[in-house]
Amino acid sequence: MAFTNQGKYEAAIPPLEKSVQLEPTGWETQWTLAKAYYHQQQYDQALKTSQQALADSNGKAPEIQLLVAQSLTAVGQYDAAANVLRDFLKNHADRPQAQLSAAGSKAWSRAAKSSHSRPPRSPAYHE
After folding, report:
1. What's CA 51's distance to the chain center, in Å?
2. What is the b/e burial string over 74-101, where b = at least 16 CB atoms within 10 angstroms of the residue's CB?
3. Whole-prediction pTM value?
4. Residue 123 has what pLDDT?
5. How far apart are CA 127 and CA 5, in angstroms?
6. Apex 100 CA angle, 97 and 106, nearest 5
7. Which residue, among 1, 35, 31, has the nearest Cα to 15 in the 3D structure?
C-alpha cells in the first residue's frame, strides 16, 4: 500500500493483485487495488474490484460505494452511479463524505437524463 500512498498506482497494481490472490476476501486490499485501477483509468477493473470489496466488507466501509459510483460513471453507467450514490447518502448522511457527495449526486442525475454530457467527478472519493 506504500505505492498507492505515494501515488505510484501502476507499480502498486501487481503486488496488490498478488495479495488479493492470497486473500480473496481481503476487502481492504481489494479497495486499495480498485483505487489503483481507477487512477490508472482501468475503470472496468476498478468497478469489478470495488464492487467485490463492498460486498466483502459487510458494511464496514460504506464509503467504498463512492468508488463504485465513480467507476460506474467512468464506464458510462450514469443511472446506476446515481442510484449507488443516492443509497450512500440515504444510509450514511452522517459521514463527512456525504456532504461532498450530495452535489455529485445531483450532477449525476442531471447527466443521466442527458445522453450528451458526462457528469463531473465527485471530490468525495479522492485520497
Report:
1. 8
2. beebbebbbbbbbebbeebeebebbeeb
3. 0.75
4. 42
5. 9
6. 125
7. 1
- Mean pLDDT score across all residues of the chain: 82
Amino acid at 48: K
The CATH number of 1-61 is 1.25.40.10
Q: Return the half-sphere exposure (C-beta side, CA atoms, 13 A cut-off) of residue 104.
A: 26
Return the domain boundaries, the chain.
Answer: 1-61, 63-127
Locate cell 468497478: which residue? Answer: 47
Which residues lie closer than 8 Å to 27 by C-beta, 6 or more apart? 52, 53, 54, 56, 57, 60, 61, 64
Residue type for position 127? E
Burial class of 43 by CB neighbour count within 10 A (0 to 12, 13 to 18, 19+): middle
C-alpha cell at 122: 465527485
pLDDT of residue 97 exceeding 90, the answer is no
Whole-angstrom distance, CA of residue 45 vs CA of residue 47: 5
Q: Write out the three cell numbers for 88.
A: 450512500
